[in-house]
Design goal:
This protein has 125 residues and is mainly alpha-helical. Helix content is 78%, strand content 0%. It is globular and about 45 Å long. The mean pLDDT is 83.
Length: 125
């Protein structure tokens, strides 16, 4: 699996997981055109991806270790809440913007490449 494909699957899964609470609000999903995403938004988005990744690293093994489906569901909901809080905790980022940028990145190779470049830059530091 290439890094780009992996990023797309991470973004997709994360956006879907975080979009679930948004769907409960009965509002249309937030949208942003890929070409309108600023460099500051890319920086904040990558910070949010990394924050969500930490939540996933924490909760993933815990969810996998539980055999009871109800307990898994409860932990998954707790993880979604923690991931949403992690996104909201990133400066210049909120959940709506995160989902909108993730959706735009899923449809734009150019935006996807900008995000990948930023992730690479952060991980090399």
């Amino acid at each position: 699996m290439t890094f780009r494909t992996r990023l797309a699957s991470i973004l997709g899964a994360t956006a879907l997981a975080l979009a679930t609470p948004l769907a409960a609000q009965q509002t249309p999903p937030p949208q942003i055109a890929a070409e309108d995403v600023t460099e500051a938004q890319v920086v904040a988005f990558v910070d949010a991806i990394l924050a969500v990744e930490e939540v996933r690293k924490d909760y993933g093994p815990r969810i996998d270790a539980v055999e009871d489906e109800a307990q898994q569901q409860a932990l998954a909901e707790e993880a979604n809440t923690a991931a949403a809080a992690a996104v909201d905790g990133v400066e210049n980022m909120d959940l709506d913007s995160y989902v909108a940028i993730a959706n735009a990145a899923g449809e734009s190779d150019t935006l996807n490449q900008r995000i990948i470049a930023r992730i690479t830059e952060v991980r090399e530091q």
